Each structure stands twice: as structure tokens, then as C-alpha cells.
From TrEMBL:
InterPro entries for this protein: ATP-dep_AA_Ligase (IPR052032), ATP-grasp (IPR011761), ATP_grasp_subdomain_1 (IPR013815), CPAse_ATP-bd (IPR005479)
Sequence ranges assigned to domain ATP-grasp in this UniProt record: 116-312
Gene Ontology molecular functions: ATP binding; ligase activity; metal ion binding
Domain of life according to the entry: Bacteria
SUPFAM superfamilies: Glutathione synthetase ATP-binding domain-like
Native species: Pseudonocardia hierapolitana
Keywords: ATP-binding, Ligase, Nucleotide-binding
Pfam families reported in the protein's UniProt record: CPSase_L_D2
Protein name: Carbamoyl-phosphate synthase L subunit-like protein
Length: 407
């Protein structure tokens, strides 16, 4: 099978998808923005050809590249695993009559108001939401729904530009950041109270062949706005033994059907609170921040290889062992500037070191990244343990003990 893979070199985690495709027997043709000389020999060795283009987010450019490749060989699949690439890839896929995720599905998984409108029509429980282009439309939404509300970009991944608004003064300030009275097109949503997590699948023909459940501590908006918090997300190994997760699996299946998701990874955010289980949003792509690495480490599985098996062979070869719960704790510098050193590392290592998967502690002199940049922005530690509750305690311990100093 000949597979065109979009942007194999950046970010660095992209190479795992290329490796996996090559390992399961695909002939991989990379299309990306980097010059071939910027690719290392190992990455180039996994590909039969690499084709440079000026951009991979323009459907016309991507279509031209794929048609150039089709003049030489038959193309069976065109795959993209980065959120910003999925829509252009879907448009090129349809232009070049290659099977895979449709433009409709890619659009609904990118445009949050359209996504939620489609899911409400299918009876999926989700927050009230709307696409707005003016302050008057936002005020009308607030009049109907009330505070608090959430403002966010219509497309994109992560919580970087997501804002909670609790009153009129906060709304005026938030709208100023989004462009004032004539705001750019954004999504406005009802704030849903509850615990937040995510449900990730590797789906084949719309059915979840592999699935994983993770929990945020605390919820993302608080985690990405509060410096002193050492936030975590933790993947549970109790998916098959706790009955409550069956409701989440059923919700994920309904979302897949409503959005037309076929053979693809998915990353679905959810809330559970006073109003029960509520859908938040979904991406038709893998999760970020190394979540797949945690799933692999906890389940005796190479999930990248299983993704490649799904794409190339239409099945997975390995089931998750659920042997370990896995998680990450992000460690924030005490101020912006440059990292000057660490304290508490030896103490934490002595207590929990045998359960550490890996750690990232940038050397002194490294510029700090802002708190809102996310879980991988500065320092972090990733861990696993057979008992989910014990893992939570160990992650808390690391978060309390290890401090990142900056000046």
C-alpha cells in the first residue's frame, strides 16, 4: 500500500507515525514544508520519497502535490495527524478520489459551533453554543443562556485562547481580546460545570477498536491559568472494570456515527457534573502532549504501530493490557525568565523513582515558557503504576516536591 503522509518531520513526534507505517509494510511518501536536507537519515530511510511544498494547510497546494505523486504511483491513502492539517488533507483526499476522512467530517471536527449543532441534532448531550461575529450576538447569547460562558476560537486545538466569562465587565474585556465590537467569528458556549477528561479511540470503519480514558486534575482552564498549580492528566487502567465508563464509550460511539468518523484516531473531551455526562469537543486526530506515549507505556502496546495497522490492514494486532495507569505532572517555573535550577528532585526520585517513565528538566539558562503554553511547555515528569489511586498520589508528591526556579 502506498501512503502519503502529511508533514513527517515536524513536530518531532510525527516521525513515530512514519516509522509505524514503514514497519507494517506501507510504502511511505512524505509531503512537508521542510527541505529534505533538514530530515535525518533515519526518517528519510522510512520513506520512499519526500516531496517539499510551501505549505501543508492549503488544500490547493496539497492537491497539486498529491496529483504529482499520483502521476508516478497509485496512492491508496492520504493521512494527516495534526489538527491544523486535517481539513486541507480531507479536501485534497476528495479532490484526488482517495478514501478516508471526508471534508464534512473534518470540518465538523474543526468548527466547534457546527460540530455541536450536528451533535445536538443527533441527540448528543452538549453545552449550548453558537458562532458569533459581533458583540451584539454574544450579548444575545448571554441573555438566553446566562453567565458563566466560554469564548473560544471556532477552530483549533488546546485551551490557549479559551476564556471563561462570569459577568458583563469580564465579557467586555474578553471581547476586546477577540477584536472588539466587530469580533472575528468565534464560538460562544454555555459553561458546563463538572470534572473534565478525554476519551481517545483508534476507530476502524466507525467502531472503536482501541480506546483509552484520561482525567484532568484540575480542569484545563484552571490548569492553564494558574502558575502555582502543577497540573496533571492521568490515563486510567480501569476502563474495562468500572461500569461508569460504559456510558462514556456509548457517548463516543454516538459522536462517531453523527460526525461520520470512519478509520481514524479521535480525541474527545468530556465533562461529568450535576447535569450528567456532557460532550465538549472532538478532534479527528490523535491527542497531543504525548498522550499516545502514555497509552503505549501503560498497555504493553505500540499504539503508533496499531494506528498504522488500522490504516494499512484495516485491523489492530494487539489489545491493551491495562497493566498500568499512566500520567504526567507539569512543573512550572516560579516566574518568567530563564531557568536557574531545580530543588526536590533527589527527594522525589528516592520516593517514586522506580515508577518514573521519563522526565524533562530543561537545563539552567533555558528560557521559560508561559503557563498557558501547556503541559509540555517547561518541565514535566511522566509516571506509571498498577494502581490508579497510588499513581495520583505519586504525581501529587512530585508536584509538591520538585520546584523549577527561574530568574
Amino acid at each position: 500500500m502506498n501512503v502519503v503522509y502529511v508533514e513527517p518531520a515536524f513536530p518531532p513526534t510525527q516521525r513515530h507515525f512514519v516509522r509505524a507505517l514503514a514497519v507494517v509494510g506501507a510504502t511511505v511518501i512524505g509531503v512537508g514544508e521542510r527541505h529534505v536536507d533538514e530530515l535525518d537519515d533515519e526518517l528519510k530511510g522510512w520513506m520512499a520519497h519526500y516531496h517539499q511544498v510551501p505549505t501543508v494547510v492549503d488544500a490547493g497546494v496539497l492537491t497539486d502535490a498529491v496529483r504529482w505523486i499520483q502521476d508516478k504511483v497509485w496512492v491508496d491513502r492520504l493521512e494527516a495527524t495534526i489538527e491544523a492539517h486535517t481539513l486541507a488533507a480531507a479536501q485534497a483526499r476528495e479532490n484526488c478520489t482517495i478514501p478516508g476522512t471526508s471534508v464534512r467530517t473534518a470540518w465538523l471536527c474543526r468548527d466547534k459551533p457546527s460540530m455541536k449543532e450536528a451533535l445536538r441534532a443527533a441527540g448528543v448531550p452538549t453545552a449550548a453554543s453558537a458562532a458569533v461575529t459581533s458583540a451584539d450576538e454574544v450579548h444575545a447569547f448571554v441573555d438566553a443562556v446566562g453567565y458563566p460562558i466560554i469564548l473560544k476560537p471556532r477552530t483549533g486545538a488546546g485551551a490557549l485562547d479559551t476564556t471563561r466569562v462570569d459577568d458583563r465587565a469580564g465579557l467586555d474585556a474578553a471581547l476586546g481580546r477577540f477584536g472588539g465590537q466587530g469580533v472575528e467569528s468565534i464560538a460562544v458556549e454555555e459553561f458546563v460545570e463538572g470534572h473534565e477528561g478525554f476519551y481517545d479511540t483508534l476507530s476502524i470503519d466507525g467502531q472503536a477498536s482501541l480506546d483509552f480514558v484520561s482525567h484532568y486534575y484540575p480542569n484545563v482552564l484552571e490548569a492553564m491559568r494558574t502558575r502555582w498549580i502543577s497540573p496533571q492528566f492521568v490515563s486510567t487502567n480501569r476502563v474495562d472494570t468500572v461500569p461508569d465508563y460504559e456510558e462514556l464509550r456509548e457517548l463516543g460511539a454516538r459522536v462517531n456515527t453523527a460526525l461520520g468518523i470512519g478509520t481514524s484516531p479521535t480525541h474527545m473531551e468530556w465533562f461529568f457534573g450535576p447535569k450528567g455526562l456532557r460532550f465538549s469537543e472532538i478532534g479527528c486526530r490523535p491527542p497531543g502532549v504525548g498522550a499516545w506515549d502514555l497509552y503505549s507505556a501503560g498497555n504493553d502496546i505500540d499504539i503508533y504501530r496499531e494506528w498504522a495497522n488500522a490504516v494499512v490492514h484495516g485491523h489492530v494486532a494487539t489489545r491493551p493490557s491495562r497493566r498500568f495507569a499512566t500520567g504526567i505532572v507539569a512543573l512550572r517555573p516560579d516566574r518568567d525568565g530563564r531557568i536557574s535550577g531545580y530543588s526536590g528532585v533527589d527527594e522525589a526520585q528516592a520516593r517514586v523513582g522506580e515508577w518514573v517513565i521519563d522526565a524533562h528538566l530543561p537545563p539552567p539558562g533555558t528560557p521559560t515558557q508561559p503557563v498557558e503554553a501547556g503541559y509540555w511547555a517547561n518541565a514535566y515528569v511522566r509516571m506509571r503504576h498498577p494502581d490508579y489511586d497510588v499513581l495520583r498520589e505519586m504525581l501529587d508528591d512530585v508536584g509538591r516536591t520538585v520546584h523549577v526556579h527561574a530568574q
